[in-house]
Amino acid sequence: MANQQHLDILRQGVEAWNAWRKQAPGIKPDLSEATLWEIDLMGADLSQTNFSGANLVRASLQGARLENAVLYRTSLFKADLSEASIREANMTGANLSGATLHKADLQRVILYRATLAGANLFDTTLHEANLCQADLRKANLSMARMHHTDLSGANLTGAILEGIDLKDAVAHKANFTGANLSDGLLDQANLSESDLSNANLHNSILDETDLSKAILRGTTLSKASLIGTKLRGATLERVDLSNANLVQSDLREAMLAHCLVYGINAWDIQLEGARQQELIITNAGEHEPVITVDDLETGQMLYLLLKQTHSRVAFGCAMPKGVLVLARRDGGYEEAQSIAARLRELDYQPILVELSAAQGEKAWEMLQRLASVVGFVIADIGGPEIAPELITLSQRGQTPIIPFASARADSQALRGSALFAQPWVYRPPFFYQQPEELSTTLPERMVSTAQSRLQERQQLLERLFPHLKEA
């Protein structure tokens, strides 16, 4: 219970209270369990005061001194602590929901299991603070400084953390789902086993950060720096890694699936035991065909092939186990994915390409370059029309093309297409009755046919150019 004498002095106003504190500097005021609803304590000297269990709902504490104060389970709902000095205070279990702590000094404060949902901590200083298991949902921590702060097990779902400085902080098993950490400084922080699903880390610095076993689903890491970052055992699904820097990062035993890796810098990374699948290497913002590969190394090689004209010769026949899988324009991507999945099981390297009607000449040039480095092409021709880029590829290229379509397609119209007038196009096309065939027997038949066509082509080349056989 509060000391009645201390409470009476406080009710006389801030001026009287501060004068008393100067006269009795050795006293530690006891205001525990006091009801101080909407009290005005702006600029008050409340250092070392015991507010345990007190009610300070909507209190005005702007610029107040609360160093070493005890605010255990204190209610500070929607209180204003702007520019307050709260260093080394014990705020374990305190309720600061909706509170304003703009530019407050919270260094080495204990906020263990405190509730700060929706609180405004913009531009606060929280170095070495203890926020373990704190509730920071939708809190605003933009531009906050939090060196060596402990956020282990904290809930930061939907929090605004733009420009935050979390250097050397610990956020083990913290929940950052949907949080905005863009332009943040998180270098050398420990975010192991944290959940960063749908978080925005655009242009953030995560050099040497520990993200081991972290969950990154739908996360934005575009233009982020992850030099030497530990991502061992992490889950990266549908992550935007475009133009990110992952030099010397550790991705051993990690899973990378359906990630955007356009423009990525991935030299000297560790990938032992990593599972990689359907990594998008093209720029979604430039109306390019969607091209996916199954590993970062292949992605970087093909990126150079597609972007540098002189690379075509250097990469000739670079992927004998590569297979270009072309999805049709009217939504046949799932069928192409089924084919690709079976090709992986057969130890081939599928490169998926999804065309759209707006791509034209650029798409044709990209297909030509890709076809020049793979063993053969598998193309879905079951749409309303056969893509003009595919017909052009068949006319100008020498890579075997294996077409397929649903049995419901107009087989007569397909066979009358100019596509089947070309020597390296297999005819008739493969037809499937059920979608399940695309992930079971049909790909094996396609591969067998393609290998036969490759042998025929090689034999023809050797007859025309005998020196090739001798070489």
UniProtKB/TrEMBL annotation:
Protein name, entry field: Pentapeptide repeat protein
Entries under InterPro entries matching the protein: 5peptide_repeat, Pentapeptide-BTB/POZ_domain
Gene3D superfamilies attached to this UniProt entry: E3 ubiquitin-protein ligase SopA
Native source organism of the sequence: Ktedonobacter racemifer DSM 44963
